[in-house]
Amino acid sequence: MLDVVTIGESMVLFTPDSNGMMRFSNQFTRKYGGAESNVAIGLSRLGHRVGWVSKVGEDEFGKGMVAFIKGEGVDVSNVTYSNDAPTGLYFKEFRREGEINVFYYRKESAASKMSSVDLDSSYIANAKYLHITGITPALSESCYDMIFDVIKIAKENGVKVVFDPNLRRKLWGEEFARETLLKIASLADIVLPGIEEGYFMFGKKTPKELGQSFISLGAKVVVLKVGAEGAYYFTKDDEKRVTGFPVGRVIDPVGAGDGFAAGFLSGLLHNLTLEESVKRANAVGALVTMVSGDVEGLPEKYEIDRLLSMNNTDVDR
């Protein structure tokens, strides 16, 4: 049995070897990244069994990416290949310190061609958690339908659904995005929004209002990320804030939310309390920001254990 199955697009990442306007760069470093595979790799490094479901192009980029993710200990047996569509690409521009721009080239990518036909019901049914994001349903109509079908499979088989809204405004219109994210959140057991995503979905600003809104919608657990301040968690009967870990210098914040999700799920899989799981999530997210790249900063289990043993974060009721 797998601990977690996640489903979604990953892409080849190119980063200029120099800072400033990317137009002046003539050398790039190739890496890989994608919200769902980031979470999968993060969980694998923390010692969990995890599978990633996706589709890539029958091209060198796709083959290289699948080999890389497999090499990180993630099961890729449910990744399929397309002869008709390429693997998606994106570029990350470090314009100046504190200013990072991301440019996606994913239209008509192989992953956007995913559909319910690509789902293996037994593969989903034999996991403890299904992790999904709000990116996948925005990729195409077939991806939209697939996400709701995979949720149905999970719920019919007692697999807990974990949803990170991961809002990408450029992928779809605001009204349809809001409607879809709310619909998925209403079906999820655990929701992991950022505070800006919560505001987008509900039009409310305070953590308490947002937490209660998600709980009223149907979630059993809500963990609301508030950046450097840490995160709040909410259940029907409890709510607390767990402060974040201090970061001297943020090198690359992209992927920190995925690290947070991996840390939180790792805590649950280790049967930690919600408070301890959020603390673990904060620690992983903080470490990710200190390294350039989506997955390069994801820690091994011993690193998290060491960090948590050295730091005591406060919890506010």
Mean pLDDT figure: 92
Strand % is 15-25%
**Helix amount:** 25-40%
| Distance N to C terminus | 36 Å
Strand order of the largest sheet: 5-4-1-8-9-10-11-12-13-14
Say what oligomer this is.
single chain
Radius of gyration: 18 Å
What characteristic shape results from the CA principal axes? globular
Structural class of the helix and strand makeup? alpha/beta
Question: H/E element string?
Answer: EEEHEHEEEHEHHEHEHHEEEHHHE
pLDDT < 50 stretches: 313-317
User: What is the makeup of the main sheet?
Assistant: 10 strands, mixed
Number of helices: 11
Q: Based on DSSP secondary structure assignment, what is the total number of beta strands?
A: 14
Give short descriptive properties of this protein.
11 helices, disordered C terminus, 317 residues, ten-stranded mixed sheet, alpha/beta, 14 strands, four-stranded mixed sheet, 38% helix, 23% strand
Protein model, in words:
The protein has 317 residues and is α/β, with parallel strands linked by helices. The protein has helices at 35-45, 60-71, 121-125, 136-139, 141-156, 174-187, 195-202, 207-217, 256-269, 274-288, 301-310, and strands at 2-7, 11-16, 28-33, 50-57, 79-82, 89-96, 99-105, 127-133, 160-164, 190-191, 221-225, 231-234, 239-242, 315-316. The strands form two sheets. Strands 5-4-1-8-9-10-11-12-13-14 form a ten-stranded mixed β-sheet, sandwiched between helices. A hairpin with a 4-residue loop joins strand 12 and strand 13. The model is unreliable at 313-317 (pLDDT under 50).
